[in-house]
Amino acid sequence: MKTIDTIKLITLLGIFASMLMLAGCGQQSSAKAPPAAPGPPEVGVVVLAPQSVTLTTELPGRTSPHQIAEVRPQVNGIIKQRLFTEGSDVKAGQVLYQIDPALYQANFASAKAALARAEANVAPVRLKTERYGELVKINAVSQQDYDDTEASLKQAEAEIEAARAALETSRINLDYTSVKAPISGRIGRSTVTTGALVTASQADPLATIQQLDPIYVDVTQSTSELLRMKQNLASGLLQNIGEAQTKVDLLLEDGTPYPQPGVLKFSDVTVDQSTGSVTLRALFPNPQQLLLPGMFVRALVTEGRNDQAILVPQRGVTRNPAGDAMVMVVGAEDKVEPRIIKVARTVGDNWLVSEGLQAGDRVILEGIQRARPGTPVKVVPFGSKPGADAAAAPQPAKN
């Protein structure tokens, strides 16, 4: 009986040892299996294509009235009446103030009487000159008498002209007692009241009129920006829009766009030495008088248009140690190539490229850390999730 139990025990121990040896061999064979070779790194690229871009420059500026006139009296006198409402719109020729006209009416009447007297005095002198002209032909009067009479006639006629000029002067002065608006626009506050004494061409204006529709916007541009724009136009990077006048858009102080566009009227020919900038003047319609003189605004001035612009996202552009702009592109055989480029300016979140890239180039925007120059990469469109193909691959079943 003991012999049978011993045989069973030895058999069980042999089976157990065999199982241990098989397990050890399985682990050893699995440990010796080589790992799967990794594939090329995955990068997200964007394929460049030419685009039509209109470039603008944002410049600071302030509004100023289209016309401004300071109302001053041209004769002396007492203000009898103010005939306008402060802050209202007035028309050119509208009477604003009435100066006491009594003295000027008397002067006008006196000048009118003086003219009538001069015209009356010339009549007998003219008749006498005509008679002496006939008599001198028959030697009935001397030549000296005729010459004296003719001189008296010319003097009388000159007195008539002087009287007419005096009458016109008095009429003008009488008309100046009604102080009129020189231009149409909005009038401000009055600096004088009824009963005030005013003098001709006094230093202080009675009121100020400003024409607000249309209205000017004066903006400043640095000479460096002006030269850059001219160079871009000369090099062909930009083309003129082709309009007679450059279009200008406006942003108000709170950042909201002004609803109506304006046009650039002229650029100053003198550089401000203190700021190194030139002044540009644009004209804007202002029917609602939303723009008031002295407001700070930002003008968007159209520089030109590029119908074949190459734009590359800013996130794909880096700088090398020399400071040059550089991008990584996927070239032939899907290998990474560094490319030095020249950029002109930003357009939104893109760079406008002037040299170094062309349509069809594949610029790496995602996975640049894994994209070593000269190494092959797997190209996917920018924005797709990296490793999406691997995630979709079936996984081995677990025991």
Instruction: Determine the CATH topology of the largest domain.
Output: Elongation Factor Tu (Ef-tu), domain 3
Strand line-up of the largest beta sheet:
2-9-12-11-10-13
The largest pleated sheet is described as: 6 strands, antiparallel, barrel
Number of helices: 5
Gross morphology is elongated
What is the CATH superfamily label of the largest domain? Efflux pump adaptor protein, beta barrel domain
Structural class: alpha+beta
The proportion of residues in beta strands is 25-35%
Question: What's this, in brief?
Answer:
The chain has 399 residues and is of the alpha+beta class.
Structural account:
By secondary structure, this protein is of the alpha+beta class. It folds into 4 domains: 43-53 and 309-383, conserved putative lor/sdh protein from methanococcus maripaludis s2 fold (Beta Barrel), CATH 2.40.420; 54-65 and 212-305, Elongation Factor Tu (Ef-tu), domain 3 (Beta Barrel), CATH 2.40.30; 74-100 and 177-204, Beta Barrel (OB fold (Dihydrolipoamide Acetyltransferase, E2P)); 101-176, Helix Hairpins (Orthogonal Bundle). Helices cover 29% and strands 34% of the residues. It is built from 5 helices and 19 strands. The strands form 3 sheets. Strands 2-9-12-11-10-13 form a 6-stranded antiparallel β-barrel. A 4-stranded antiparallel beta sheet has the order 6-5-3-8. Helix 2 runs antiparallel to helix 3 (143-176). It is elongated. 21% of the residues are buried. Mean pLDDT is 81; it is low at 27-31 and 386-399.
